Amino acid sequence: MFIDQIKSVFNEFEHKAEFKSYKELASGHINDTYLIKALNKPHFVLQRINHGVFKDVPGLIKNKVLVSQHIRHKLKAASKKKQKRAVLTFLKTKSGTDYYKDNQGNYWNLMYYIDKSITHDIVTSKKIAYQGGKLLGKFLTLTSDFDANQLVEVIPKFHDMSFRFNQFESALQMASIERLENAKFYIDQAKLLKEEMCILQKLKESGQIKTRVTHNDTKISNVLFDKRNKGLCMIDTDTVMPGIIHYDFGDAIRTICNTAQEDEKDLNLVAFNVKYYKAYRKGFLKQMKSTITPLELKYLPLAAKTMIFIMALRFLTDYLNNDVYYKVKYSEHNLDRSKNQFKLLDSLNKHINNL
Prior knowledge:
Oligomer: single chain
Number of helices: 13
CATH architecture of the largest domain: Alpha-Beta Complex
CATH topology of the largest domain: Aminoglycoside 3'-phosphotransferase, Chain: A, domain 2
Strand content: 5-15%
Shape: globular
Helix content: 40-55%
């Protein structure tokens, strides 16, 4: 019966297409996403937003529609075909809204599928890193004149380091003696790094670093490539909200420059890939040169450190809280994830003067 539900929701939108088939796309961990094949092209992507995670779904959808419209306006000199491949295009419902809410309270949105495109789960070459950096830089440049105050903060305090340290301090008070002992070395490391890891937040709060539109989920799988591995557009814009460019740059670096998986237990396999960092940074700055400030540029290496650290801290906090946030496969899983990120941070520090 599920196909009937998908077809019914799809037909609530103004697409002038005839439903043929669907399949689930396993690209995200939060929302449900489906490729809708029509009898004739174009095809579509139908998404059900997880309203358990995102508390203001109408605001979230408004965010990504506004940002996409802004980017499309900036690309108005390009052909319609190129525009559709360079930015996500959302369709309205037959009643004229940007989303459909079904009788179970689920929110859905529909966009055009970008044909002949691919994604990468990991970076396997400097070319892919370079193109990924270039595309993020283009996204941030095209939105640099958009008033970020128009956007809803879909995940409040997402990268707020003070908030993350408060969570950490609370976890320390509640943690078992066993877990405190197991994590002692990393608890001490976190405390030692606190002052440095709050630098970017203080610069943001003082206004020395500008608040802009930021993507906030810049892993390489959220970059769409063509078959020749040239970057096409940023996808999965559910977390678009106000931030600083260091969040986006740093999180991308965190995910593409680890030579091992995020939960690899053999720390000898964990190292910071400097070649991928430099390739990504080169592509990023090629697009950002007209909008990045000297102060923003100065703190790009610290951005990488900060975003690696914030994940190390979040994993450590969850371990101390008995694993209430992240899914775990065994009792020390979150601690191993935290150790992994601290090792990556240590490896980065060895190269920091050359980044």
